[in-house]
Amino acid sequence: MFNYFWKLKRIVLCICTIFFLLPPRAQGAPVLRLATDPWPPYSLGQKGCALKSGYAFDIGLEMSKRLHCVLKADLLPWNRVLACMKNGTYDITFPIQSKPEREVFMVFSNTIFEDMVFLWHLKNRKDTLSGWKTIDDLKPYTIGIVSGYTYRNKMDRAIESGIIKTEKINSPECNFKKLLGGRFDGFLESESVVMSFFQKHPEYGKQITHAPQIVSKDIFRIGISKNSPFAQRLSEINRIIYEMKQDGTIERILITAN
Question: Which of 48, 62, 164, 254 has the lowest tally of Cβ within 10 angstroms?
Fold first, then answer.
């Protein structure tokens, strides 16, 4: 009987030792929820679907890894993206530019990268539009713009005040077709977006070019909902952005995507 209890005691001690030495049960990693709209080459895919490729996905994925999170990335209409940032349904959006009205419900990271915005027009134009230098030069023309996008400073003010006649479209792709169809004289868009479109549709590149004058410089950041717990981690996110620049991660993502 004594031997039986002694063996039982040893078994219990062994079991307790094993449980003591096991690492604590891993908790589920927090989810970093990213929302953006389809905007090649930044974000590729269809509205209502998961985001799986593009600058936004690659940078979001790398950011989530360094934050020790799991990335959930979705493509939504742009106005809905902004609504989600207001109510905290999603944590972050990228790429985005800071504006005073957005700073009411978002905090913004340091700059991740920059892009140039130009006025694009048909190559066969020989009038003032193709060589414009001031806002006044654009008054006779109708310019295509993407609804909800910002073009910074003087151009935004000219658009909002009606100094420049504009036609709003819902997606950048519509600009190309409407320009060739004569719906407007030119459109505003970043160089990366247009070059990405030309890669897929080289026939457009043979007919469309941009005026030399730079309209604005897009300064892209991560926007973080003030209703997200990640807003409290802004300094950590900025540190990671700095590290991603220093170790060449962001440059590699931009080169690979192109």
Answer: 48
